[in-house]
Amino acid sequence: MAGLHFLLVPLVAQGHIIPMVDLARLLAGRGARVTVVTTPVNAARNRAVVESARRAGLDVEIAEIAFPGPGHGLPEGLENMDLLTEREHFQPFFQAAWSMDAPLEEYVRSLPRRPDCLIADSCNPWTAEVCARHGIPRLVLHCPSTYFLLAMHSLSKHGVHERVADELETFEVPDFPVPAVANKATFRGFFQWPGAEGFQRDVAEAEATADGLLFNTFRDIEGVFIDRYAAALGRKTWAIGPTCASGGLDADSRASRGNRPDVDASLFVSWLDARPPSSVLYISFGSLAHLPAKQVIELGRGLEASERPFVWAIKEANSNADVQAWLAEGFEERVKDRGLLVRGWAPQVTILSHPAVGGFLTHCGWNAALEAIAHGVPVLTWPNFSDQFSSERLLVDVLDVGVRSGVQVPAMFLPKEAEGVQVTSVGVGKAVAELMDEGPKGTARRARAKDLAAKAKAAMEEGGSSYADLTDMIHHVTVLGGKKGHEVDTTSARAMPSILH
């Protein structure tokens, strides 16, 4: 293990950077040197966590490389998916991300010694050629659940998407460990849009040629899906999560995980301290999803009518004039004794780890799902797109730690007259009441959530399944390094990108 150097290359999106930085801390905790390679905007967002790790004696650093967005018609500084505000920027953004191979290669050439391993996000297949040219072993980190990965593999293998024409026509996922009835609208992969066939092909080829696959999950919640996916692909795999349960962060770094919060974390803590245990509902839809204005208003009315305390990360308050006008009508004043609104990024782990929080209304992004599981908080599911509907099925149907809000499809598939509303204020109230129920069903759900939290913690500790898988992965990299040898490449070095310590 001594002397191993890992390069970690996340996709430039919050839900992908956060687990990669967590993994950097885990590897450094085992004695490795770890460099997270990302762009200047994303480096700045994650500086606090990296500095905390370094203060703790961990050899973690961030290397900045350029994001070639302007060359693809994007504004300067648009370096993260959560900064996308125009639909026409979506495809150019990924084209720019796919062009990061040149700055990555420049960085690799600048190093005095070849890295022992590069761990790339599954959405960064462009790293494959860089690794091949320099003889660097390459692992792929998958950020969604293995439930989702296996389902998408089965649908592709059996040609279901090709046979089903209507986006809303239901089908059963074939050759799947548990019953799963869905439609194309709710079982859609990351690069399944017209013109993205090349992206899909690159991702599949990069996965097929990788030296192994990593999953941010643990066997107690996804063991059967992990085993079936590994068998289907015939690849070496490791489940090394939930990375959010790795611990070791001080309070400030925990609050800054992913980005600096828009409100001081101490405000949340003092506000929650004044509430009874398990009484507060936390609401957040992640970094990418934006609800239509009328749906935001229906949600707010439902929360108001519920008469339960809540913390709501309402980023639409900064970007939607209709939501701003509704808030100006006095919503905050009416709920001021039991409602706390955050206009932007909230310190999610700080909030979920507080004993006053008893429920989490979530978009079901996999990071959010794992954070809820790791902290023993039952969820109210409100998926928006992509793998989020799969996460909902896992949380509600398999693990039985969630309640459905009533969302059926991504908003784009709703009839125009719905104006983006899938859950009325009455529906919100009913779902909140069911989640926060103190009767036998609610008590049993909370007990299951607490049990999974204990298992998540145990998985990450020495003797746990994820700890053992990380150990085996490190051994695998050591063996690969022995086979390929250590080459020194200084003759073609170019200017060293800036390193943030």
Automatic annotation (TrEMBL):
Give TM regions: none
**What is one Pfam family matched by this protein?**
UDPGT
Record-given protein name: Glycosyltransferase
Superkingdom, natural source: Eukaryota
- Family the UniProt entry places it in: Belongs to the UDP-glycosyltransferase family.
Q: Specify the taxonomic lineage.
A: Eukaryota, Viridiplantae, Streptophyta, Embryophyta, Tracheophyta
Recorded hits in InterPro entries, A to Z, give: Glyco_transf_N, UDP_glucos_trans, UDP_glycos_trans_CS
Q: Which organism is it from?
A: Miscanthus lutarioriparius
Enzyme class, spelled out: transferase
Show the Gene3D superfamilies listed in the entry: Glycogen Phosphorylase B
Give the record's keywords alphabetically: Glycosyltransferase, Signal, Transferase
Q: Where is the signal peptide?
A: 1-15
Q: Indicate the segments forming the Glycosyltransferase N-terminal domain, all copies.
A: 7-242
Named from the GO MF annotations, one term is: UDP-glucosyltransferase activity
What is the E.C. number? 2.4.1.-
